[in-house]
Design brief:
Blueprint lengths: L15 E6 L3 E7 L5 E7 L10 H17 L2 E8 L6 H20 L4 E5 H9 L6 H10 L7 H16 L4
């Protein structure tokens, strides 16, 4: 996914904007068409007696729920991670990204990845900002992120809004 290229697949780019920091604990931020911004985190851990694929089924169900109340979604922006601390984190991210892009294609919703350094630089002025610095930057914008995942999603959302990638 290129930094500023929304993968247009039939949508006109209007409506709500969904920004995500993908992972088992996914940060999300949503700007609805009326300008209201909400954010939070959602976890997709499988239960003790469930297979690993359950996290992706729950993720798809959650995306369907978001689409139900935020329709139309004019664009989805994802923090694009190029390096992970471990193999499991890389596998989880890849799985969530694959499911997200397939879901977006199916629903004709444009999507785009935004590199981590780009997000941090836009939020704080530093491409290598710490989690705390991103949280503080989002607080200065008037948000109260529940954790660093929600703060990252908010930073991605503000990047998209500031760049006017989606109207």
């Amino acid at each position: 996914m290129a930094e500023t290229t929304l993968h247009q697949n039939g949508a006109d780019g209007n409506g709500s904007i969904l920004a995500l920091d993908l992972g088992t604990k996914t940060g999300w931020a949503l700007r609805q068409a009326d300008g209201t911004i909400t954010s939070g985190t959602v976890e997709f851990r499988p239960g003790r007696f469930e297979g690993g694929g359950m996290r992706y089924l729950r993720f798809k169900q959650w995306l369907d729920e978001v689409r139900g109340f935020a329709h139309p979604i004019g664009g989805i922006f994802v923090e694009e991670v190029r390096a992970h601390a471990g193999v499991t984190a890389a596998q989880m991210y890849g799985g969530f990204l694959a499911h997200l892009t397939a879901w977006a294609e199916f629903h004709a919703i444009p999507y785009c990845g935004v590199p981590v350094g780009t997000v941090k630089r836009a939020a704080t002025g530093k491409g290598n900002a710490s989690k705390t610095e991103v949280i503080e930057a989002m607080r200065r914008k008037g948000h109260q992120p529940v954790d660093d995942n929600a703060a990252d999603a908010l930073a991605v959302l503000h990047w998209a809004i500031d760049k006017e990638v989606v109207k």
